[in-house]
Amino acid sequence: MKAVTVSAPHVIAFADQPEPKDLSSGEVLIRVRAGGICGSDLHIFHGTNPFATYPRVIGHEFAGEVVAIGADVTHLAVGDKVAVDPVVSCGSCYACSIGRPNVCRHLQVLGVHRDGGFQELIAVDGAKAHKLPADIPWEHAALVEPFTIAAQSASQGRLSGSDTVLICGAGPIGLVLLQVAKMHGARTVVMDILDSRLQRAAALGADHTINSRSQDLVAEMLRLTDGNGASLIFEATGNIKVMEQCIREIAAIAGRVVVLGMGSDVMNIAPVDFMRRELEVIGTRLSLNKFPQVVEWIRDGKVNPAGIISHVFPASEIQAAIDLSGNPGQDVCKIVVTF
Ligand code: MN
What separation in angstroms does the CA of 260 have from each of 100, 129, 173? Predict the structure, then answer.
């Protein structure tokens, strides 16, 4: 069989790989049919993901067909269409003991810390394989995982229909957050520096868009909200200046700021910035039991995976897909790879 392997930074190929060995009792064997390329895959390709070792089969957003099941797997059958939760946790650390395995001390993610889903066959823990309706297209099935990121962020931020939501960053994650915020009935504002991305946000129903390169983000947000600011902010740019503006000036009284961006620069924030407005700044990572909920959203048409897909490539053209991913100027959003 073949797999998309990053053998060393900047070296990627769709090349031969041994097939998975015998299944253990709790595992299922999946014939992968489609996967989404994520920013973290690009970081592995560029050698800038601190968690990755090489060689690595990338891909943590993927779906496929069950082709064999271990002896103890009862919730799936051969032929089922499934999406896979890529999070592997230890089950015994403090985070796992309080029911938060998505921040497990010994967390591993398929496609990052261990080989992932961009291969023709993969054996995974059956409990992580979530059955999908048979009529969901493979390209959409591949994108259950990014929607679980939005579901987790919404849960962490206690998103509700009464919120005025600012989403910073209109890449794939910003746009799945937009869909989830709209589904809840919230008023939505999306910010980015690329008009092509903001046009996609507008097409997906954003109430307002702000290009922070040509407009003053703070002034525009305050104007749109009669000076109140945003009750809930999803910060998905990782840009430290944007983060500072959100915390100091844009968040409303009693507001929440959910942090998705992976920046490691240091902020200039005073204690009073949090204290004065009872501001909450909340981290979010991966997802916790969100796959079943997202499968329902997609099944019921409450979210639209097609709205974020810009390109589809066969896995044999992975080099072209990766090259295009690093080029956001060309209206690149989510790139899906098919197997
Ligand atoms: Mn991802």
Answer: 17, 25, 9
Distance CA 247, CA 139 (A): 37
Contacts of 98 (CB under 8 A, 6+ apart): none
- Give the Å distance between the CA of 218 and the centre of ligand 1: 29
Give pLDDT < 70 ranges for the chain.
328-329
How many Å lie between the centroid of ligand 1 and the Cα of residue 224? 31
Strands 164-168 and 230-235, sheet pairing: parallel
What spacing in Å lies between the alpha carbon of 166 and ligand 1's midpoint?
21
Judged by DSSP in three states, 153 sits in: helix
275 alpha carbon – ligand 1 mean position (Å): 33
Q: How far apart are CA 59 and CA 62, in angstroms?
A: 7
Q: What is the pLDDT of residues 12-47, one digit of tens each?
A: 999 999 999 889 999 999 999 999 999 999 999 999
> How many Å lie between the centroid of ligand 1 and the Cα of residue 254?
30
Q: What is the DSSP letter of 20?
A: P
Centre of ligand 1 from the C-alpha of residue 223, in Å: 33
**Dihedral over Cα of 77, 80, 86, 91: its sign:** negative
